Structure formats: C-alpha cells, structure tokens
Amino acid sequence: MKSWRRQNHLKRGDLRRNPLYKTILAIFFLIIPLGTLMVQAAETATPACPSLEQRPFNLKQVAKGVYLRKGRHETFTKDNLNAIANIGLIIGDTSVAVIDTGGSFCDGSRFHKALRQVTDKPISHVINTHVHPDHNLGNAAFVNGKSIFIGHKNLPRAVADKGQIYIENITRIVGKDVMAGTKSIPPSVTVTDEMKLNLGNRPLTLMALPTSHTNQDLVVFDESQKILWSGDLVFHEHTPVVDGSLLGWQTVMERLAKIPATHLIPGHGGPWLPWPEGATDQIRYLNKLATDLRRIISNGGTMLEAQKQAAKEEEEKWKLFEEFNPRNASAAFAELEWE
Ligand SMILES: [Zn+2]
Q1: Residue ranges, CATH 3.60.15.10, the chain
Q2: Which of 73, 229, 313, 329 has the most CB atoms around its CB within 10 Å?
Q3: pLDDT given for residue 243 in this prediction
C-alpha cells in the first residue's frame, strides 16, 4: 500500500478522501450485507408455498404426453394450498398446452416447476376450462408474454365480474401467504363454438358449450389419444356443482357423449376414466336432483325442503355432499320453478 501510494504521488490520508475509495468501502460494508439480507428475506417471504423438494407436486403421466395432478376432494385450506382441482398438460412435438392452472399463484408456480421437470418445450397455450378459482387462479404463474391464454367467449366477462371477489374471499379463508402473487387473468383468445390447435403432431379440438356447470365451460378433445378433458363438465367422486343450469347441463352431457373419446379426464376425481362410462355417476346425480326437485315443486314444497330432501339418496356416493348438494338444490329449484 505504501509503495503504491508513493508511485501515485499520494499523501497519507489522500486515499481515504478519494470518492472511489469511499464507494468501494460502502459496497463492501453496507450494500453487500444488505443485499444478502434481502435475498434471505425473499427466500423466506412465502413460507406458505413450499418447494417441490419440501412437498411433492404429484404430477403423474397418464398417457403418451399427458401429465396430471389430481386435486384433493376438499374446500380451500391453508394446508392443501388450494390444490383441489385436476390440472395438467399435453405435450406435442413442438409445444405444450396447459389445461387449467390451479387454485393460487403458489399452486400454479409449483405446477410450472413440476412441468419443467418433465419437458423443456415452450408452453404455447394455457387453456382455462372455466372461471372457478380452483381451476384458474394459478394463471399468473404462466404469464411470460409468449403463451396464449384461451377460454370460452364468456370467460372474460366472468373473470371481470368474479375474479377479484374470489381472490378476496379465498384470502380470508387461507391467508395472504398462500395467496401471495395470485391474480385473476382473462383469456387473450376466446372460443365461440370450436377451435383447433396443434402442438406438433398433436391436434386438439376446443369446444365452447352452452350454459351448464357454468356459462363458460370449455372442453378439450385430444384427438390422437382420444382423451376428453371435460373440466368441471364431469365430476367424479366430488359432488357436482351447479353454477349454471341443471337442465342445460343435462343437455350438454348428451352432446358430450357424441365425442369419440375412449378416456376422460374430469375436473375432479378420476383422474383417468373410461369414456363415456366415467360420467355415469354424474348423469345419475343430475337426473335424481331434477326428478326430486320437480316432485318437491309440484307438491308445493319450499326451497328449504328442497335443500334437505333433493337428491338425498345420493349422499353416500359423493364427497363434500353437505357442502354442495344444498346449494345445487337452491340453484336448480329457482330454475325448475319456472319450467
Ligand atoms: Zn368448477
């Protein structure tokens, strides 16, 4: 240090007064430790969203180029990380389509990481089957400026009307940690009737259906593997949820039956079922609900009676029956009352 100072004709103290020297000192003693602290803070900022090592995502291959995560038959909780819907992906020769993204940014990010463990092909399409928060609140994890987000023509309106309300309500239940980063994102491309996509030797047909489970249900038919991705147009094990039209849903099921698929991936349950047999339980439930409601209405029964009695015989056959059957009875009572 002494000889270097002499060579540069510097007096003792000159170095300490040099602005560059002060800057270097500041970097060493202030900015670097602060940066380290911030990195540590970022790593621990969302303790509620575990890594795949801490908690496996359970993405399983069910057919050639088809991977799925089966949702739990539960309502939203801090413990299940909102991972309650079936979500998955289809891999073609050139790209990947994601079908539904999960119940939160955390669920979606974990899905994205699990997806990257099975393929490095670009995600060309993110397909949302409908607005329900367990299926599409993971969208933000897939925004990269390149993937096209696709949904039913009615989905943008539904996202605008309900997206933020879903986020606020679910945040109250599971807390801010689990919902950190969650955003409601509408599709950039919509389907009015039918749309064809190709992921490279992997043609997909997307069909937008009339009001049934909701008023924005979209199904995907994977032609080469003959797989129907029904979204929540088919429930299995988990009590079906009527958020659109019971009568509409019964009609749509007849239309879906004509799709030449051999297998079904339902929105809940399964996740790998023969088609059309995989929808038998749900068709029976919807028919029973409609028959019971018509009888209750014609006997002058009230909505409260309908909630208690309609489709009661189905109780043992479904999970979350007490949670959803009374709501279905109310919704469909109002619909059938004016038949
Ligand atoms: Zn749904």
Answers
A1: 60-287
A2: 229
A3: 98
What is the distance in A from the centroid of ligand 1 to the CA of 190?
18
Rg (CA), the chain: 26
Given this model, what pLDDT does residue 40 score? Answer: 40
What lies within 8 Å, CB to CB, of 303 at 6+ separation is: 329, 330, 333, 334
Structure tokens given for 200: 């490279």
For residue 211, count other CB atoms closer than 10 A to its CB.
Answer: 17
CA 132–ligand 1 middle distance (angstroms): 5
Q: What pLDDT score does 326 carry?
A: 98
Calculate how far, in angstroms, residue 130's C-alpha sits from the geometric centre of ligand 1: 7
Task: Specify whether domain 60-287 bears CATH 1.10.10.10.
Answer: no
pLDDT at 59: 98
Q: How far is the centre of ligand 1, averaged over its atoms, from the C-alpha of 49 (Å)? A: 23
The total of other beta-carbon atoms located within 10 Å of residue 247's CB is: 16
Taking the centre of ligand 1 as the mean of its atom positions, its distance from the CA of residue 274, in whole angstroms, is 21
pLDDT tens digit sequence for 249-261: 999 999 999 999 9
> For residue 171, how far is its CA from the centre of ligand 1 (angstroms)?
18
CA 29 / ligand 1 centre spacing (Å):
54
Q: Give me ligand 1 centre to Cα 270, in Å.
A: 15
Calpha distance 196→202 (Å, rounded)? 10
pLDDT of residue 287: 98
Q: State in Å: Cα 260 to ligand 1 middle.
A: 24
Instruction: Using DSSP, state whether 87 is helix, strand or coil.
Output: strand
